[in-house]
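User: Can you recover a sequence for this backbone? Please restate the input before giving your answer.

Assistant: Of course. Working from this structure:
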């Protein structure tokens, strides 16, 4: 019995610390777009939207998407609000693929309902990160993140006076161009603070809009690996052998 127990314990430990118990990353992507908005005047009816969200996982591919969603609130002086879009995915075997995207946006309108001109400043603190990894030429990955911010200014009759897209930033890394290994990440991030000054005459209005995008995919064309039992299954099987060996020993001693 002692011999069987030792063998069972050895098998249990070997499986627990074997490569089967850990996944090996062979392809991945990550993308994020973050935006903090504040102003030196009260903004009423600031609205945010979840425009699109999708995650497709297959085989040994897994991922996640998230970000800001549908909301309506007032942004007062001294406060700030945060908009975001995140997407990431990992492939740890073949077959395996993951494809994800998250699109969010925000908007608000400032109207001058008084008889004298008003002015203000809107501040935008933005950050974009995109990163990919491929282990060999048999893997592919792409990561994309972007932020677009602009405004449209209207007169009292709704006629367009001015419009401008003053932020149009994007990051994209594609393994077809970057090659094998890591690309992107903190070293290549885009991050800065900008602002928009405006003035409105009586009955004029200005509409600000923001769009955030995080998306990407990772996959592999490697020959499918030979199916093996899950590590948890092997461990349970080994424990069962150990229990049977101990039970047999107890019966013999009785």
């Amino acid at each position: 019995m002692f011999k069987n127990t030792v063998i069972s314990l050895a098998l249990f430990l070997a499986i627990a610390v074997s490569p089967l118990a850990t996944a090996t990353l062979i392809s991945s992507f990550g993308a994020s777009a973050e935006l903090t908005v504040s102003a030196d005047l009260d903004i009423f009816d600031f609205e945010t939207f979840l425009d699109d969200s999708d995650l497709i996982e297959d085989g040994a591919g897994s991922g996640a998407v998230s970000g800001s969603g549908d909301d309506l609130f007032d942004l007062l002086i001294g406060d700030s609000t945060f908009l975001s879009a995140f997407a990431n995915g990992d492939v740890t075997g073949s077959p395996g693929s993951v494809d994800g995207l998250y699109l969010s946006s925000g908007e608000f309108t400032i109207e001058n309902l008084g008889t004298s001109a008003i002015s203000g400043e809107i501040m935008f603190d933005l950050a974009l990160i995109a990163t990919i990894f491929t282990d060999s030429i048999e893997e592919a990955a792409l990561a994309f993140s972007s932020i677009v911010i602009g405004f449209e200014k209207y007169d009292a009759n709704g006629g367009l006076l001015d419009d401008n897209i003053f932020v149009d930033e994007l990051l994209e890394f594609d393994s077809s161009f970057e090659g094998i290994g890591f690309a992107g990440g903190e070293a290549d991030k885009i991050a800065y603070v900008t602002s928009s000054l405006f003035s409105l005459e009586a009955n004029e209005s200005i509409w600000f809009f923001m769009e955030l995008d995080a998306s990407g995919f990772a996959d592999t064309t490697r020959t499918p690996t030979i199916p093996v039992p899950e590590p948890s299954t092997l461990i349970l099987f080994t424990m069962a052998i150990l229990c049977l060996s101990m039970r047999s020993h107890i019966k013999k001693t009785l």
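That completes the design. Helices lie at 2-16, 175-178, 231-253.
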